[in-house]
Design brief:
heterodimer, A: about 525 residues, alpha/beta, Rossmann fold, six-stranded mixed beta sheet, 17 helices, 22 strands, B: ABC transporter involved in vitamin B12 uptake, BtuC, 2 domains, three-stranded mixed beta sheet, two-stranded antiparallel sheet, 7 strands, about 65% helix, disordered N terminus, cell membrane (chain B)
């Protein structure tokens, strides 16, 4: 089916999210929609899917205008969507999720689960998905959950399938498999809209590329364009995709983790006998697909996990079993992976957020009183130093863009005397400009002699920053490899395959007796 | 760390092919809890043991099959029960030592034995009418069950229903008024359901359309209904009690054969129409929620409204009509107060039943059958108190009055622990 969007304009108050966008997707074509976070790609697709109503413009399917009052109408017209945040109900089975919204019933109004199972099986077999119709969705890995989303759309005979940032949660291998599925769908005559900001994937699978910036179509490109060309089109200026950094000069091991195990309340081992060390003046990147224990590992280091076995020492002193306060006082700086949830208080001002971790003692608190004048001076200096774009230090951080919010978090964490710096997903959801800034600050911290741990699911980021790379899979370390390890090797390691033996380096020897 | 903190024993690394590794967590909460109750039970049953004979009367005079009364020597029974309690607590400890969980039926048996011991101890030298005890329990549980069913539906669709109390009270008032005027208890029941729906409309409108905090709307509604019915009662019903507050009660219907089953028959099958409707409602809500299209959509909206929206389900409408339905069911529970048990409306006559029903919803983990069982437990605790005060047990009646609430607190806090409700319950769905 041919899909055409003509002059779509969507406003949210004063913000124009989509400004007169035209887009044509031919039948059986994979059309990539490329743009930075916040460029308006998802908004456009939500208009197409009937979730948002556009102020202007029209949608044409096979050259006849279509009007969607809601997603139900869009589905009936043959449009399916694989959402970035899966629209699946975790406590339902696969079959229940697939049947939801257009349930078949048997006598007496009872649900016909058998029919739904057959439908799931049939589609699943057609594409070689291997999805169990009776599995609870919450028990499935994200890659399989995504397939459930695809099955859901196909069970409604979708002719146009929209993939909204589908690779954000996948391993490189799962991403490759998804590419295969997309080509299969295309061969079966399905039109595909592929929304992403990852350049390599676009060049690999797309037939045509439309680039969106700040709500406008800024150009079309062919899949033969180079990364630099696409990136500059996306950002609007020439971008340097590499990080300038001198070779590391590691000192003595500062953080030594020995046989660390983290267990959740149900007895699942989330981090499984992990041992590693980080030297001062080096960046250890922890790579891995989301949900393989990286989050819990950092939380254990910070004192946020209640069930931890093993030993953590920083400069010879034990950190295990200490409160977060004590860990912070020991000189650990921490950028949490979800800045709006764990890093900042949205309703507080920039200045207040900058002193959140020092709310109990001098210099900002003297005899139970906030030292507001000192805080204002401090905040003004930090806002300038970290280039936080805002209307002033009294702006609530909730109103800042993601990049500026992250700069506030960095400013707070880096303004203390640090003995260890941990940054979890430091550039998630940031624009290219902010990514450059954050990366520079992380490298500068390393060059100042601080041991740095960067946790990232993005291979680009890992490759750009790491001096050594530690790959985690299902809670254990697959291997620790040099920073220049080829992508293909890292991809395999992220799927649990150990690195070829030749590339395994000897990590700096732990300090003898440090754990005692 | 306290003594009940789980003890962790990580297992040795297992190959990654075996899926996520697990560790053994020994949770000593259950055996310690059982141990504490064993000690308390033994102090009461043996330490303060009473002498005499306790008589359990198992049949009413009108029963076809007459069972003989059971005489139990009070002190000896207390000792035997204490030993059995000790054995169960020890068994539970042994199970946990081997990293196994204490089965729920064992905890149930423990509770039953403790209860039996207590009944025997309290009735030394007197007799307890078991059918009467159970019958009264069911009577007290009826409005709780209706309220809990309303709560289950409402919470499953994503709206916290604190207004059950108000819906019960509105139902009780309206049914008394309408049944008195028309002389038809059935019309009274319908009016009660309508009153429940009206209260639910307000809750639904404010929480779904205007995104007002659901708990606050619920609490305010309770106060409002209490005020309005109280005012109308003093101004209207009390002065004209003969014409406006003397509703005909539902007649008792004995089901042939079934009502002659020993012990349970007279309790379950010699009831009024409203109770039979309740049996039907429990089954209908259970089947509906878990086996029909209606239930699937309702649960989807309560778990992940956005996902429901993306498959074309109207979230606001689904919530609105199901909250209204919940109001109708709770309203019917209100009618039981006036048309089933008391026979006239009294100010504040629901006396917190709506909140106990809410506790039953949580204790029952948002499942209609479990919530019904929880409501029956609370009904039993309430009735035990009145039966014991009649036969003159040594426990102060003030303490016995606390019993239903103590049971509620222990049940919700101790047995349920951290239970997971519908994910989106209490959260308004704001479409952007």
């Amino acid at each position: 089916m041919k899909l055409e969007l003509r002059g779509i304009t969507k406003r949210f108050g004063a913000l124009v999210a989509n400004d007169n966008i035209n887009l044509t997707v031919e039948a059986g074509e994979i059309h990539a929609l490329l743009g930075e976070n916040g460029a308006g790609k998802s908004t456009l697709m939500n208009v197409l899917y009937g979730l948002y109503r556009a102020e202007e413009g029209e949608i044409l399917l096979d050259d006849s205008p279509a009007h969607f009052a809601g997603p139900g109408d869009a589905m009936k017209a043959g449009i399916g969507m694989v959402h970035q945040h899966f629209m699946l109900i975790p406590v339902f089975t696969v079959a229940e999720n697939v049947m939801l919204g257009h349930e078949q019933t048997r006598l007496g109004g009872r649900l016909d689960l058998a029919a739904a199972r057959v439908r799931v099986k049939e589609i699943s077999d057609r594409f070689g998905f291997a999805v169990d119709p009776d599995a609870l969705v919450e028990d499935l890995p994200v890659g399989v959950q995504q397939r459930v989303e695809i099955i859901k759309a196909l069970s409604q005979d979708a002719k146009v399938l929209v993939f909204d940032e589908p690779t954000a949660v996948l391993t490189p291998q799962e991403t490759d498999e998804l590419m295969v599925i997309m080509r299969q769908l295309k061969a079966a005559g399905t039109s595909i809209v592929f929304i992403t900001h990852k350049l390599r994937e676009v060049r690999e699978v797309a037939d045509r590329i439309t680039v969106i910036r700040l709500g406008k179509v800024v150009g079309e490109a062919s899949p033969t364009a180079t990364n630099e060309e696409l990136a500059s089109l996306m950002v609007g200026r020439a971008v340097d995709l590499t990080v300038d950094k001198a070779p590391a000069t590691p000192g003595a091991p500062a953080l030594v983790v020995t046989d660390l195990t983290v267990i959740d309340p149900r007895g699942q081992v989330l981090v499984n006998h992990v041992s590693f060390s980080v030297a001062s003046g080096e960046i250890l990147a922890i790579a891995g697909v989301q949900g393989n224990g990286q989050t819990e590992l950092t939380e254990a280091l910070m004192g946020l996990q209640p069930r931890v076995v093993g030993e953590i020492t920083l400069d010879g002193k034990s950190l295990r079993g200490h409160s977060v306060r004590q860990v912070l006082d020991a000189g650990v700086g921490f950028v949490p992976e979800d800045r709006t949830e764990d890093g900042l208080v949205g309703g507080f001002t920039i200045a207040e957020n900058l002193m959140l971790d020092r709310s109990h003692t001098l210099p900002f608190v003297k005899r139970f009183n906030l030292q507001l004048a000192l805080l204002a001076e401090f905040a003004t200096a930090k806002v300038k130093e970290f280039d936080v774009r805002s209307q002033g230090i009294d702006t609530p951080v909730g109103r800042l863009s993601g990049g500026n919010q992250q700069k506030v978090v960095l400013a707070r964490e880096l303004s203390r005397e640090l003995r260890l710096f941990i940054a979890a997903q430091p550039t998630r959801g940031l624009d290219v400009g902010s990514i450059e800034f954050v990366h520079e600050r992380i490298v500068a911290t390393r060059d100042g002699g601080t041991p740095v741990i960067v946790i990232s699911t993005e291979l680009d980021e890992v490759a750009a920053l790491a001096d050594r790379i530690m790959v985690m899979y299902r809670g254990r370390i697959v291997g620790i490899v040099p920073g220049d390890t080829p992508r293909a090797v890292l991809g395999l390691m992220m799927a649990g395959e150990p690195a070829p033996t030749t590339t395994v380096p000897t990590p700096p020897a732990p300090i003898e007796g440090a754990a005692a | 760390m306290s003594t009940i903190a789980p003890v962790i024993v990580p297992t040795q690394p297992t190959p990654p092919e075996n899926g996520p590794a697990t560790a053994v967590i020994r949770n000593w909460k259950t055996p310690i809890g059982l141990g504490v109750f064993t000690v308390l039970g033994a102090i009461m049953l043996v330490g303060f043991g009473r002498d005499g004979i306790s008589t359990m009367v198992l049949s009413t005079t009108s029963d076809l099959i007459q069972l003989p009364a059971v005489d139990l020597p009070t002190r000896a029974t207390g000792i035997v029960v204490s030993l059995l309690l000790l054995a169960i607590a020890a068994w539970s400890a042994w199970l946990v030592r081997g990293a196994r969980k204490t089965p729920i039926w064992l905890i149930g048996l423990f509770a039953f034995l403790l209860l039996l011991g207590f009944l025997v101890w309290a009735s030394a030298g007197a007799s307890i009418p078991i059918p009467g005890l159970l019958f009264g329990s069911l009577s007290l549980a009826v409005p709780l069950i209706f309220g809990a069913l309303g709560g289950v539906i409402s919470e499953r669709v994503g709206v916290v229903n604190v207004a059950i109390e108000g819906q019960l009270l509105a139902g009780a008032f309206t049914s008394a008024l309408v049944a008195s005027i028309t002389g038809q208890p059935l019309l009274g029941l319908l009016a009660a359901m309508l009153a429940g729906v009206l209260v639910a409309f307000v809750l639904a409108a404010f929480s779904i359309k205007y995104f007002v905090d659901q708990v606050i709307v619920g609490v305010v509604l309770n106060v409002l209904v209490s005020g309005v019915t109280g005012f109308l009662f003093t101004q209207l019903l009390a002065p004209n009690a003969a014409t406006l507050n003397q509703p005909p009660k539902f007649d008792r219907i004995n089901i042939p054969l079934l009502s002659e089953i020993p012990i349970l028959g007279p309790v379950v099958f010699r009831q009024t129409l409203i109770v039979y409707i309740m049996y039907f409602a429990v089954i209908a809500v259970y089947v509906g929620i878990f086996h029909t299209k209606w239930g699937l959509r309702l649960r989807a909206v309560g778990e992940h409204p956005q996902a429901a929206d993306t498959v074309g389900i109207n979230v606001a409408a689904t919530r609105f009509w199901n909250v209204s339905l919940a109001g109708a069911i709770a309203g019917a529970g209100g009618a039981y107060f006036t048309l089933g048990s008391v026979g006239a409306f009294g100010k504040e006559m629901t006396a917190g039943a709506g909140f106990i029903a809410l506790a039953a919803v949580i204790f029952g983990r948002w499942d209609p059958i479990r919530a019904t069982l929880a409501a029956l437990l609370f009904g039993f605790a309430s009735n035990l108190q009145s039966v014991l005060s009649i036969i003159g047990s040594p426990v102060p009646s003030e303490f016995m009055l606390m019993l239903p609430y103590l049971v509620t607190i222990f049940a919700v806090a101790g047995l349920v622990g951290r239970s997971r409700g519908p994910a989106a319950s209490g959260k308004p769905y704001i479409k952007s």
